[in-house]
Design a protein that fits this description.
The chain is of the alpha/beta class. The protein folds into 2 domains: 120 residues, Ribulose 1,5 Bisphosphate Carboxylase/Oxygenase; 84 residues, Ribosomal protein L1/L10, domain II (Rossmann fold). Helices cover 30% and strands 22% of the residues. A 5-stranded mixed beta sheet has the order 1-10-9-2-8, with helices on one face. A 3-stranded parallel beta sheet has the order 5-4-6, with helices on both faces. Helix 3 links the parallel strand 4 and strand 5. The longest helix has 17 residues.
Length: 230
């Protein structure tokens, strides 16, 4: 596959085998970013877990001190007018029940997150083939199945992220934007790191977190020296 001129130039600025101190890694990623928009900064966190085992299927959420810089659209699936009002007042982009369930059945998934009250989960369960592959199915572990709809919406809108391990043992998460200051990015990243460390399964032996790589939306990954995360 042909490598673009911009990516070739970016690769000249990094040693892909080296592990950089956190602050240096952030600087290198910023220097390599070449898109004409404010790129996201993304973390890839490698965990030595097997998600097929329930205890090792890591799925937690955390608010970030400085958010992600990304606008997140939220659908609140609720069965009462009072909950609908609560969701909209908290910042939900859409709120309702039957009309949105029908839209989803028709293939509509133009939102980033879905929150649902427990009484609607039976109906949502029927839509697993549509919502599951897109990561939109509400789940109590991620705080998206709840009666406290307003709080859930507000947390997501303010920059909450979900840390969910994929089948290959990697957690992918946005930690901010290229335009964020180094200090703000460091606070966000260390928040994510600490939440992951606290989610270590009690039965797991040996290493848990084995590698963290940071990249921009278009740039190559830069390895972070884990000793600088503490």
């Amino acid at each position: 596959m042909k490598i673009s001129k911009n990516r070739t130039q970016a690769l000249e600025k990094v040693n892909l085998e080296k592990k950089y101190p956190l602050e240096d890694a952030l600087a290198v990623v910023k220097e390599m970013a070449y898109a004409n928009y404010d790129e996201s900064k993304d973390l890839a966190i490698n965990l030595d877990v097997d998600p097929r085992h329930a205890e090792e299927n890591i799925r937690v959420t955390t608010p970030l001190p400085y958010g992600t810089g990304k606008k997140v659209s939220v659908l609140a699936l609720v069965s009462s007018e009072s909950k609908e009002k609560e969701a909209l007042e908290a910042g939900a982009d859409y709120a309702g029940s039957k009309e949105f369930l029908e839209k989803i059945k028709g293939g509509w998934t133009d939102v980033d997150r879905i929150i649902a009250t427990p009484d609607l989960m039976a109906e949502l369960g029927k839509l697993g083939k549509i919502l599951g592959p897109k990561g939109l199915m509400p789940n109590p572990k991620s705080g998206t199945v709840t009666l406290d709809v307003g709080k859930a919406v507000a947390e997501i809108k303010s920059g909450q992220v979900e840390l969910r391990v994929e089948k290959n043992g990697i957690v992918h998460v946005v930690c901010g934007k290229i335009s964020f200051s180094s200090e703000h990015l460091i606070e966000n990243i260390k928040t994510i790191y600490n939440v992951i460390i606290k989610s270590r399964p009690s039965s797991l032996k040996g290493n848990f977190l084995t590698k963290i790589t940071i990249s921009s939306s278009t740039g190559p990954g830069v390895k972070i020296d884990l000793s600088t995360m503490v």
